[in-house]
Amino acid sequence: MTTPQEDSKKQRSQKLAALPLREELRGQEPYGAPQLTVPAMLNVNETTYDVPADVVEAITEQVRRAATELNRYPDREFTALREKLAHYLSRESSLEAPLSAESIWAANGSNEIMQHIFQAFAGPGRSVLSFPPTYSMYPLYARGTYSDYIAGEREEDFTQSPESVAQQIRAHRPNVVILCSPNNPTGTALSLDVVEAAYEAGEDSQAMVIVDEAYGEFRQQGTPSALELLPGRERLIVSRTMSKAFALAGGRLGYLAAAPEVADALRLVRLPYHLSAVTQAAAEAALDHSQALMANVERIKTQRDRIVSELGEMGLDPKPSDANFVFFGGLQDEKTAWQHLLEDGILIRDVGIPRHLRVTAGTEEETTSFLESLRQHLAAESPRAAARG
Ligand SMILES: Cc1ncc(COP(=O)(O)O)c(C=O)c1O
């Protein structure tokens, strides 16, 4: 017996199959984690604290002002926004040589940033190399831009060595390399010698090297940003987003820093006026309040470190994390653990790696309920684990 919803889904998929769709899209599922409203939503690495009231006020006021001019197209150079982003990044990473506004490009989330980069530097007959397990959108950007995707390899503990990264780049000669640091889903950060080695190894194939630092603000003390390596490296791109540390996932603002000519290349592929006046206004107001918005980063890092330490005490295998989430293994069955947590109102992420799950570090209360629920699950599974916990 099928339900009416299942019947209607089947009919839609038959109708989709009848469309003259690109062959490589047939049978594919759209990207997207479950969007469920439950008390603790810890599955997509958002900041779970609300946007502070004074920042809501400031964003509302700036958007209100922008609304009076919505009859006009927005500033397609988003000049004021680029200036604020350059200023913010230079301060956040204590850069010796401050970035100029010309080195900045922005788009609707860092997903669109990546799409621009692929459109300009990858494409038919060109290839892109990244190192799974990593952000699962990378192969999809490749598919969307008709680029070949090459899955590189990392060490068993998910780290990457300069030698191995350089050797794989020399072997594959990709046009674009993506390093994700801290890496999603494992939380692993890269040392700068890995980025330097990737850049040097990419000299032969003139590879553009992207360091995706979507979670950069959560890095452990002493972990540097690849922004420091930008001077003199015109094929290097550092990508960031306001979706994570800025608590602005709904605002859709991603950005990058690179040589000014990289931004010129991306101007060739962006759609006209791709950043709406409303987006620009909201992001500018948020940047004016970056300190207030970022106040929760330290609290989130504390919960992240607490998760790593308590999961270890439970006998699980949490990976060290420089991000706002923790990836952990050692589960008997990740699907039943995920389901148990969901039944307790806690949504975390099954990233498709057996015996592993990923959880976002939320507020102290959310973290406590996650840890308690998981502890109960482990105790029910194995009374010996309960004695240990
Ligand atoms: C590593 C990484 N890069 C990029 C993104 C895209 O973020 P956004 O498009 O919201 O900026 C994400 C989102 O989770 C991510 O994990």
From TrEMBL:
In its UniProt record, a GO molecular function of this protein is:
histidinol-phosphate transaminase activity
PANTHER family per the UniProt record, alphabetical:
HISTIDINOL-PHOSPHATE AMINOTRANSFERASE, HISTIDINOL-PHOSPHATE AMINOTRANSFERASE-RELATED
* Reaction(s) the record says it catalyses: L-histidinol phosphate + 2-oxoglutarate = 3-(imidazol-4-yl)-2-oxopropyl phosphate + L-glutamate
Q: Which residues carry this modification: N6-(pyridoxal phosphate)lysine?
A: K244
Q: Top-down, what is the taxonomic lineage of the species of origin? A: Bacteria, Bacillati, Actinomycetota, Actinomycetes, Micrococcales
EC class of the enzyme, as a word: transferase
Matches recorded under InterPro entries: Aminotrans_II_pyridoxalP_BS (IPR001917), Aminotransferase_I/II_large (IPR004839), HisP_aminotrans (IPR005861), PyrdxlP-dep_Trfase (IPR015424), PyrdxlP-dep_Trfase_major (IPR015421), PyrdxlP-dep_Trfase_small (IPR015422)
UniProt entry keywords in alphabetical sequence: Amino-acid biosynthesis, Aminotransferase, Histidine biosynthesis, Pyridoxal phosphate, Transferase
Please give the name of this protein.
Answer: Histidinol-phosphate aminotransferase
EC number in record: 2.6.1.9
Family under the similarity heading: Belongs to the class-II pyridoxal-phosphate-dependent aminotransferase family. Histidinol-phosphate aminotransferase subfamily.
Biological process (GO) annotations held by this record are: L-histidine biosynthetic process
Which Pfam families does the annotation name?
A: Aminotran_1_2 (PF00155)
Say yes or no: keyword Amino-acid biosynthesis present. yes
* Required cofactor names: pyridoxal 5'-phosphate
Q: In which pathway does it act?
A: Amino-acid biosynthesis; L-histidine biosynthesis; L-histidine from 5-phospho-alpha-D-ribose 1-diphosphate: step 7/9
Q: How does the annotation summarize its subunit structure?
A: Homodimer.
**Domain Aminotransferase class I/classII large positions:** 42-374
